[in-house]
Automatic annotation (TrEMBL):
Keywords: Transferase. Residues 176-251, 264-323 form the Hydroxymethylglutaryl-coenzyme A synthase C-terminal domain. The keyword Ligase does not apply. Substrate binds at residue 151. Belongs to the thiolase-like superfamily. HMG-CoA synthase family. It comes from Nocardia pseudobrasiliensis. This is Hydroxymethylglutaryl-CoA synthase. InterPro entries: HMG_CoA_synt_C_dom, HMG_CoA_synth_N, HMG_CoA_synthase_prok, Thiolase-like.
């Protein structure tokens, strides 16, 4: 029996309604804007409308896949997030319902900070390996939000990426070798009673870099490819400069001089979207992959390394090989439109959005229609979020 290749058959993204240039944040904070533009490598961040959440972003990304491929064979939806809307019920169930996915389906939410999306992808591959007739919908969806006037505020953002994992994929074959690293560390976490994370930013940068080393060593020990074989390197990008630090660390470790030109040429195409979207936690790595695919010359048959890091912490180094003709299946125009149609807002508008809160006592609220995506949060009734399909994508 020939074992089929397994990987990403389709991939689509979504982001939110508004965009705030970090010059607006600098105007408020009095910080030199180049700290954000150059020091962090971030130019802007998506700010969601009040009627957008991780479910509406996830459904918006996944609907594009369902429109192209239908729902047949989808028996699993894995939704990775670290900004969940419920302590118990999976956000994947709302997406399953909004998209009309079969009831004969397992719908589950996965959590391990920003790493959850990569873990969902690997678990999906396992399901397809067991039954190649099945297809798994993997979604990474997050809204990154830090305390007002904290260092992390410049690294906020929001996005969702949906992927259809199947046998004989049109876009990218997931390679089997993966390097893993888990370490119990308090660099970033969000206790149940908080809406924003507690974060030791400097510790998280060091922990990420250490995890890169360990994950790479494990990958090598398991017979992975050499650095020189990869045509691209996608890192989790909490802010763009973090990917630059990570890649510099990897090159140093391999005895390759990490010149500015080398690091830039290895990473630049992966950073174009995240630079203006900001951090999207679980989705960030895959937004980076989309940015690479949408901005590269032909990568047919070539391997790309992906490094996922989720604070707390878990890291995984894995790789994909681009399928022949993958470019025909991309959604470059749609991805760019999702970014460019965001409405620029001032710091004051951002702040007013941050101050809005949903009721926490079960009282009903109906939200004004604000977002421009095909799904919206209509309101809250009896402690439940009520979603609405507004229009086709
Ligand atoms: N022009 C150019 N660069 C400037 C600058 C200016 N005017 N002012 C500062 N910088 C640079 C700093 O030198 C630094 O660069 P370096 O790290 O290469 O040395 C960078 O801008 C950030 O400055 P710093 O003073 O370290 O920022 P900060 O104390 O506000 O913290 C984070 C930055 C990333 C720690 C903070 O945004 C954070 O906590 N983010 C959330 C957590 C996170 O994303 N962790 C990443 C791993 S998951």
């Amino acid at each position: 029996m020939t074992v089929p290749t397994i990987g990403i058959h389709d991939i689509a993204m979504a982001t939110g309604r508004y965009v705030m240039d970090l010059a607006e944040l600098a105007r408020h904070s009095g910080v030199d804007v180049n700290k954000y533009y150059i020091g962090l490598g971030q130019v802007a961040q998506t700010v969601p409308a009040f009627d957008e959440d991780i479910v509406t972003l996830a459904a918006t990304a996944a609907q594009q896949i369902v429109a192209r491929h239908g729902v047949d064979g989808i028996r699993t939806v894995l939704l990775a997030t670290e900004t969940g809307i419920d302590q118990s019920k999976s956000a994947a169930i709302y997406v399953q319902d909004l998209l009309g996915l079969p009831a004969a389906c397992r719908a589950v939410e996965l959590k391990q900070a920003c790493y959850g999306g990569a873990s969902a992808l690997q678990l999906a591959a396992g399901i397809v390996a067991r039954d190649p007739e099945q297809r798994v919908l993997v979604i990474a969806s997050d809204i990154a939000k830090y305390d007002i006037d904290s260092g992390g505020e410049a690294t906020q953002g929001a996005a969702a990426v949906a992927m259809l994992v199947s046998a004989d994929p049109d876009i990218a074959v997931l390679e089997e070798t993966a390097g893993l690293y888990t370490a119990n560390i308090q660099d970033f976490w969000r206790p149940n009673y908080r809406s924003t994370p507690l974060v030791d930013g400097k510790l998280s940068i060091g922990a990420y870099l250490e995890a890169v080393e360990h994950a790479w060593k494990d990958y090598e020990a398991r017979g992975g490819r050499g650095v020189g074989e990869f045509a691209g390197f996608c890192y989790h990008q909490p802010f763009i400069k973090m990917a630059y630090k990570a890649h510099t660390r990897l090159l140093e470790m391999k005895g390759i001089e990490p010149t500015t030109a080398r690091v830039h040429s290895d990473l630049a195409p992966t950073t174009i979207y995240n630079r203006v979207i900001g951090n999207s936690y679980t989705a960030s790595l895959f937004v980076g992959l989309l940015s690479l695919l949408d901005h590269s010359d032909d990568l047919d048959g070539r391997p790309v390394a992906l490094l996922s890091y989720g604070s707390g912490s878990v890291a995984e180094l894995f790789s994909v090989t681009l399928a022949p003709g993958y470019r025909r299946h991309l959604r470059t125009a749609e991805n760019q439109a999702a970014i460019s149609r965001r409405e620029p807002i001032s710091y004051e508008k951002y702040r007013s959005l941050r101050e809005l809160t949903l009721p926490e006592d079960g009282s009903e609220v109906v939200l004004a229609a604000e977002g421009h995506n095909p799904f919206r949060l209509r309101g809250i009734a009896e402690h439940s979020r009520i979603y609405q399909a507004v229009h086709a994508y």
